[in-house]
Design goal:
Thrombin, subunit H, 12% helix, Immunoglobulin-like, Pdz3 Domain
Length: 399
């Protein structure tokens, strides 16, 4: 009998633990578009209170919200015990101009990114510092480090004396010290390989005429060595010239190869996220943008399975629309950029690329005259199939 009691208690504690975890995982701040559902996962016994109106989490929370602005809610357990405050920012419906043009990007990091380590004259000066690949060095001896040249100069001027270093790992700021080592060229080194910039080619997704902002890629630019999204200080959006296209095959992704040398500056990049690259467009003329061609951004419940089209550029100064099929949509997914499963069905595009290829990320998807999202990934084992991110997620990154 005692064993059953113990099992019951453990089972009860497990249920309580899971319940608390579900409550804890509910976000404190939410951004939604006007007319969109709040989409808070229902948890039994939770009530949402706003302006003396009570809505039970398991039933009425997912009704569309049409009031624009900031709404403050209180989440209560059984309408008796306060659990947490939730702030909801309802942004107005907007219109965007789908672009689909190939563009280049230059990103400059906030500080310098550590991408590797090596011995200096048989020594490892970094060994006990705690610094790892993927960390960003912000300051040395209270001097701000913006690029690799500044770091090299500060280290050489140290004459081998201990250097106090401020760096970032994830969201945490850390401090440490390293004593530089002199190499055979009489230069002082930390044994750290660092980078302060990155560049890439992708597709410009849309332009929002009202704010002058743009979105591109549908995913972030990651460092080739650390595989982490690059935390940027600023960046440039530039024109690109397409050099060649490698057709995708099963097991081997294809790619659009381009050059950004001598490219015209189109705008400034201020944000590199898991949902795309964002910034302000200052030179629209090379892209031939017409603000009168702006269309509505579709809400998730408006997106239908079936036919749609993408816009992409496979030749210089020539964009075309190609047919695709939306096969699945994951309405409640706000965690990553795999919102929809799509398939290329246009024979013209399949003939040119074999399906989705690198450099096509960011190609806007249009359905029933509305912008619904952007291409983000290809399935390596089937290049005709890939993923796309919802348009509303990209719009929310502008706010």
């Amino acid at each position: 009998m005692k064993i059953f009691k113990k099992i019951f208690i453990v089972f009860l504690l497990l249920i309580i633990y899971v319940y608390i975890c579900n409550i804890t995982l509910l976000p404190n701040n939410i951004i939604i578009m006007q007319g969109e559902n709040l989409n808070i996962n229902p948890v039994l016994g939770l009530y949402l209170n706003s302006n003396n109106n009570i809505m039970q989490a398991s039933s009425n929370l997912n009704n569309p919200i049409n009031t624009v602005g900031k709404l403050d809610f209180k989440l209560d357990l059984f309408n008796l015990f306060p659990v947490k405050d939730i702030s909801v920012n309802v942004i107005p419906k907007t219109k965007v101009v789908p672009i689909g043009a190939s563009i280049g990007m230059k990103l400059y990091t906030d500080g310098v990114l550590v991408v590797g380590m090596s011995e200096i004259e048989g020594e490892e000066p970094f060994k006990n510092s705690g610094i790892k690949e993927g960390d960003r060095i912000l300051e040395i001896n209270d001097n701000k480090i913006s690029n690799t040249n500044e770091l090299i100069n500060v280290v050489n001027e140290s004459e081998g004396n201990n250097l106090n270093i401020k760096y970032v790992r994830g969201e945490e700021v850390e401090t440490t010290s390293i004593k530089p080592v002199k190499n055979s060229n009489n230069e002082y080194k930390l044994g750290l390989w660092v980078r302060d910039a990155a560049a890439g080619v992708g597709t410009l997704t849309f332009y929002e005429p009202e704010s002058g902002m743009f979105a591109a890629l549908g995913h972030g630019i990651v460092d080739i060595d650390t595989s982490q999204i690059i935390n940027i200080a600023n960046g440039e959006l530039v024109t690109t010239n397409i050099l060649s296209i490698t057709k995708g095959e099963k097991g081997t992704p294809g790619e659009i190869r381009g050059t950004i040398e001598n490219g015209y500056t189109l705008g400034n990049i201020y944000k590199n996220t898991g949902f795309g690259v964002f910034g302000s467009l200052t030179n629209t003329s090379p892209l031939g943008i017409n603000s009168n061609e702006a269309i509505d951004v579709a809400l998730r419940n408006e997106i239908q399975l079936g036919k749609a089209e993408i816009i992409c550029q496979l030749e210089d100064v020539k964009k075309e629309k190609y047919e695709i099929e939306i096969q699945k949509k994951f309405v409640n997914n706000n965690e990553d950029n795999k919102s929809m499963l799509i398939k290329i069905t246009d024979d013209r595009l399949l003939e040119k690329t074999g399906g989705i290829i690198q450099g096509m990320s960011g190609a806007p998807i249009i359905q029933n005259g509305k912008f619904v999202g952007a291409v983000t990934h290809v399935l390596v084992n089937d290049p005709t199939v890939g993923y796309a991110v919802f348009g509303d997620i990209m719009i929310k990154q502008l706010h």
